[in-house]
C-alpha cells in the first residue's frame, strides 16, 4: 500500500477541474530536466488516455538525452514556437504547472501563463510555492514531481490508465531527480512505486543507459577538461568550484545538457560537501550548486545568486562577468563555516 500523501480535498478539486474541460496545457520550467519532462509527459500520456486534449509547452529546448522519451516529439518549445504556444495557452481551459515553485522559473513564458484565463494547478516538490494556482499540490518531501504525478493519477482512481509510455516518463523523472537513486531517495515507497512501474513494463536499466550513458565524445572531453583544468578545491571550506566560459564551451561544441551532472562530480572527493558550477551563457552566468548532508546549497544560492532550490540541489543566476561571480563566491565562502559538518 502506498500512503495518501496528497490531501483528499486536493484530489477532489483536481477531479472536478479535469472533468469539465478538454483543452489542457501542461508547462514546466526553463531548461527542462528529466523530472520536468518526465512529469509533464506522464501527465500528457494520462490525459490522452482519458481522452482529453493536452499539450505540453516548455520555455526552452530540453537536452538531447531526453529526446527518446515517448511524446517528446509532440512537445512545443515556447521560444521556437511563440505564436502557436501563446494561442494554445490563451485558449486553454486548464493549465498544469509542473516541477517549479515560482512563476519566474517559466522565464519568457511566465507572463502568458500567469495572465491566461484558465485556472492553474501547480504540482511540485520545491519549497515555498507561489500563490498563482487555484490548486496547489506542493510536497517538498517527495522525490520528484514525476512521483507526485504517479500518486495523483492513482488517487484519481486511474492506476489502470497508466500505460507503458506514461510509466517510462514517471520513472525517468524519479531517476533523474535522485541522481539514479543516489540521493534524496531513502523513502521506502519510492521502491514500491518503481516496482509497480516495472510491472507495467518499464525497463529501468535501459532508461538508465539512455539518459546517463549517451555522451558524445565532445561532451566526455568537456567533462575531462573541466575536471582537470577548471576545478578548484577549497579544502578549508569543504568546497569545490568549476567554471566554464562561453569560449571554452564553444571549443567543445557545447550542446544543451552537455554539462549536466558535472556539478555533482566534485562531491566524490573525500571531504568535499559543497560543489558549485558556473557556466557562462550569452546573456548571464548560470550557477548550479550541490551539497551533501545539512549544508544549505539553496541558502547560498539565495544569498549570492538570486536563486533557490532544495537543500542539496539549488541553482541561480548572475548578470556579472564570470570572474566577478567567482570573486563573490570565494569572498562569501567563509560566511558558511557554521554549516560545515
Ligand atoms: P540545476 O542546477 O539542475 O539547474 O538546478 C537544481 C535545482 O535548483 C532545481 O531543481 C531548482 O529547484 C533550483 N534552481 C535552479 N535554477 C534556479 C534559479 O534560477 N532560481 C531558483 N529559485 N531555483 C533554481
Ligand atoms: Mn523536480
Quick overview of this protein structure:
The protein has 341 residues and is an alpha/beta fold. The protein is 38% helix and 17% strand. It folds into 2 domains: 8-212, Alpha-Beta Complex (inorganic pyrophosphatase (n-terminal core)), CATH 3.90.1640; 217-339, Diaminopimelate Epimerase, Chain A, domain 1 (Roll), CATH 3.10.310.
Report what the structure shows.
- The two termini are 37 Å apart.
- The chain has helices at 8-19, 34-49, 82-91, 110-115, 145-155, 164-177, 188-199, 204-212, 217-229, 246-251, 297-305, 322-332; strands at residues 23-27, 53-58, 76-77, 94-98, 120-124, 135-138, 231-234, 239-244, 274-280, 285-291, 308-309, 313-318.
- The protein is built from 12 helices and 12 strands.
- With 341 residues, the protein is an alpha/beta fold.
- Strand 8, helix 10 and strand 9 (274-280) form a beta-alpha-beta unit.
- The strands form 2 sheets. A 6-stranded parallel beta sheet has the order 3-2-1-4-5-6, sandwiched between helices. The protein has a 6-stranded mixed beta sheet with strand order 7-8-9-10-12-11.
- Helix 6 (164-177) packs antiparallel against helix 7 (188-199).
- The protein folds into 2 domains: 8-212, Alpha-Beta Complex (inorganic pyrophosphatase (n-terminal core)), CATH 3.90.1640.10; 217-339, Diaminopimelate Epimerase, Chain A, domain 1 (Roll).
- The chain is 38% helix and 17% strand.
- The protein is globular, with a radius of gyration of 20 Å.
- Guanosine-5'-monophosphate binds at residues 33, 102, 126, 288, 307-310, 313-317.
- The site of guanosine-5'-monophosphate has 13 residues, from strand 11 and strand 12.
